[in-house]
Amino acid sequence: MYDLIQTMLGQEVIVYVSDGSVSTVGGFLRKVEEGWIQVERANHQIELISVDYISRIQERPRSMKKKRQ
User: Fold this and answer.
1) What separation in angstroms does the CA of 41 have from each of 1, 3, 5, 63, 68?
2) 1 pLDDT band (50/70/90 cuts)?
């Protein structure tokens, strides 16, 4: 799984996190560590997310990227 996540380093992504309910975290994937990923949000806030709670990661769609610019 880490190898797959590693291929998305530096890309703008949406991470779906499930801890009883599903929530999303959007931003740039900055680091992949054993058990954790680091996502930098648009306001430069850093989020550390346990891979145990990740249900899905996708590259942010182009239409959403245009809205943010």
Assistant:
1) 23, 22, 17, 18, 12
2) confident
* Contacts with 50 (C-beta within 8 Å, 6 or more apart), sequence order: 35, 36
Q: Tell me how long the chain is.
A: 69
pTM of full prediction above 0.70: yes
pLDDT score at 20: 85
32 CB contacts (<8 Å, ≥6 apart)? 2, 5, 6, 9, 38
Nearest partner of 14 among 67, 68, 64, 69, judged by Cα? 64
Nearest to 29 by CA among 50, 57, 67: 57
